[in-house]
Amino acid sequence: MSQRVLDGWAFLSGVLAVAFGVLAGELLAGWLSPSVSPVSAVGSMVIDGLPPGVKDLAISLFGTADKVVFLLVMAVVIGVAAGLAGVFEAHRKNAGWLLVAGFGLLGAAAVFARAQGNTVALAPPVVAALLSVALLRIAIARLRDWRTAQADPTVSLETGRRRFFQVLGASAAGALLTGLATGVVRGSVASYQAARDKLKLPAPAEPAAPIPAAAQLEVPGLRPLVIPNDQFYRIDTALAVPVINPDDWQLKITGMVDREVSITMAELLAQPMIERYVTIACVSNEVGGDLIGNARWLGWPVREFLARAGVQPGADMVLSRSQDGFTASTPIEALTDDRDSIIAVGMNGQLLPLEHGFPARLIVPGLYGYVSATKWLTELKVTTFQADLAYWSTRGWSERGPIKQSSRIDTPRSGAAVSSGKLVLAGSAWAQTTGISEVQVQVDDGQWQSATLAAGISKDTWVQWSAAVEVAPGQHRVQVRSVDAAGQPQRAEYAAPAPDGSSGYHAIRINAQ
Ligand SMILES: Nc1nc2c(c(=O)[nH]1)N[C@H]1C(S)=C(S)[C@@H](COP(=O)(O)O)O[C@H]1N2
Ligand SMILES: [Mo]
């Protein structure tokens, strides 16, 4: 085999190995984290890094919208680099696959920068790199064997050639299949994106009252009063985030109703929307935990939709169902009373993020998410607790889940070293649907003392508090507790999250110097 022929096969081996790897990564990304494509992430990173002159030239040549040209350029660049990696590997063992691994690292870094710390998004570039490297190494090793066989009469030439082409063929077939599958997945993501881009969040018929300036305390280390969408806790059973094209979506009411009704996204957006700040919480939240967040939700009252269907007597529960099969059981009165439960489409002034239930979800003040806050909502089945069990209720969690009143110390963090003398504590407290009237703190076994409550947003949201205490040098334990607006004190007995939510006082340890 001449050097030229060897190089040719090595080049092709590199191209096919990396094509299979990269396309497998894209396919996985389309499934795991549709908002981050590894190839686009690398491309955008490169574009961001171009000198302004070159960038302007590229934009004027291709136009900002021309993603096809962009992807073609990326394909050619990646293809040539991959082919060269194959040639390097054939000439100097390890030179080629190290190059590919280096590109893989670059891809992982680019994805990580875009994925806002979502570690799941790292899987696709890592899989792409591992698969590419493995295939490249195997293919080139077989190519060498084939060439050795030509010089060594004791080895069968036929076998050497066949073994090489097996690997090459597998890479080609894999690249083709994953390429087709990626096209289908990406196509559906693209059509979702186009449909989403057309949507406009309607103006609320009833806007939320502006937040009083005194509601947000300026204490360093205190969590924000309203949590931005990209920092909002996320809990669901969906490994792959459901990507729903809003043009195809509809929400229907079934079960014990006078007539089944349904609504499309366009119809939903045309309803008079109300806007509310509501603090939602996860039943798995430990005392002092982070699985709680407050946002401004925009939506249509569930009771108005239920009224269209006509709820029949005897029904006491609504089983809400999501696109991916998750279900939650919500007592019907929580959806029809004056707490303003909504079919939410907006979160902090934006369409719901994919991860938080686009196109629509339920928001019910006062109930843990697992029995109320169904994301990717598709159906409301009017039924009874007797007849139906929701997703988590079949797994040992309580059928009903009112949020337990609780309070939390945000700052200082437990274990922190602080200066002795005056110490400022701050945090939040919540008793959704009732409101908080008092927060108290205690150092060691000292007197409980009242904290200062910030102005509240509403009884359905957490309220911030701060307190100044005196601490002597040494180790201390600091606790917080609350009283709700009905005079009910927070439960002191410790309870683990299962089966119906944690209780007890949040306590931290500090070290005063
Ligand atoms: N479709 C679907 N909706 C869901 C869940 C889920 O697993 N699937 N989890 C629920 C739980 S347990 C909680 S605490 C909230 C969390 O909402 P968030 O991720 O927007 O914070 O969503 C609820 N809605
Ligand atoms: Mo939850």
TrEMBL record:
* Keyword Membrane attributed: yes
Which stretches does the entry tag as region Disordered?
485-505
| PANTHER family assigned to the protein according to its UniProt record, in alphabetical order | SULFITE OXIDASE, MITOCHONDRIAL (PTHR19372:SF7), SULFITE REDUCTASE (PTHR19372)
- Which species? Arthrobacter russicus
Tell me what this protein is called.
Answer: DMSO/TMAO reductase YedYZ molybdopterin-dependent catalytic subunit
* Transferase recorded as keyword: no
All copies of domain Oxidoreductase molybdopterin-binding, residue ranges: 239-388
What keywords sit in the KW lines? Membrane, Transmembrane, Transmembrane helix
Q: Membrane-spanning residues where? A: 68-88, 95-115, 121-143, 164-185
